[in-house]
Amino acid sequence: MLFGKTIVVTGCASGIGARAAELLGQLGADVMGIDRREPKFAMAAFVQGDLSAPEGVASLAARLPHKFDALCNVAGVSGTLGAVKSLAINFYGLRALSEACAAKLREGGAVVNVASIAGFGWRQNLERAKGLAGIQGFPHVETVVEEFRIKDEEVYPVSKEALLLWTFRAAHLPLFKDRGIRVNAVSPGPVETPILAEFRSVLGDERVDSDITRVGRAGNAGDIAPVIAFLCSDGARWVNGVNVAADGGLEASILAEVMGF
Ligand code: NAI
After folding, report:
1. Number of domains in the chain
2. How far away, in angstroms, is 12 Cα from ligand 1 center?
3. 165-170: long-range contacts (C-beta < 8 A, 24 or more apart)?
4. Which residue in 118, 119, 145, 215 has a CA-CA distance of 20 to 30 Å to 187?
């Protein structure tokens, strides 16, 4: 399905990014991984770096190949690092890398952003998400956190709301659209990876357990990787600017509750 494509995957050293990198390789792609930590298995290439600051993103982008087919933005943090770092990694670093890679993506290529069910509130918090996504470039994130009064305990959903809003917009930005580059998101529910224990401490056991109970089990990285692979593939050539929930039905259940149907 992905034979001959070169695909860059951030967050390749753990969880969803690691499984996605492995599966993309099994489906025929040359996979180039990015992470701040060494991956546990070999891939076509690995670039070590940090997405939390503009210099880190610029250095990573410069070390990527001249041309590739898809960028999977999987790396992310739970919020335990605090509002500034978390917003920088989950949103501004991800966006800066995508913008820096746009010219390297081949025509008809794809950007796949791993968001979260935690970003469900983007409509309710639209003005804040618009404000955060409206800031151009990689800003001084301390100032942004102060200006928007983002608390450490709420930064994870806030970062994912901004990411979803940007995904919808990016699909129509000339930077991507003019060369047929599709920009989509995948939103997992709770998935058994190392980050899940951190979510329990940030969001609380009750929230995580209630989400798992609604759909019968937590997901695993293998439930999410094929969705990422599909969005990278030519089979998704008419899929653009959407958020695909990969959550066992969690979003549908929450929507039914919120909208009363
Ligand atoms: P994980 O903790 O297993 O993997 C995250 C990876 O991102 C790690 O390899 C880490 O080293 C890398 N990373 C973190 N900060 C980085 C930085 N500054 N620069 C470079 N690499 C960095 O977590 P998991 O579950 O695989 O998460 C992947 C994505 O899925 C994240 O964006 C997360 O928000 C999202 N997600 C995860 C859910 C879950 O329950 N596991 C639920 C919903 C979304």
Report:
1. 1
2. 9
3. 165/122, 165/126, 165/129, 165/130, 165/133, 166/91, 166/95, 166/113, 166/133, 167/113, 167/115, 167/241, 167/243, 168/241, 168/243, 169/133, 170/98, 170/111, 170/241
4. 145
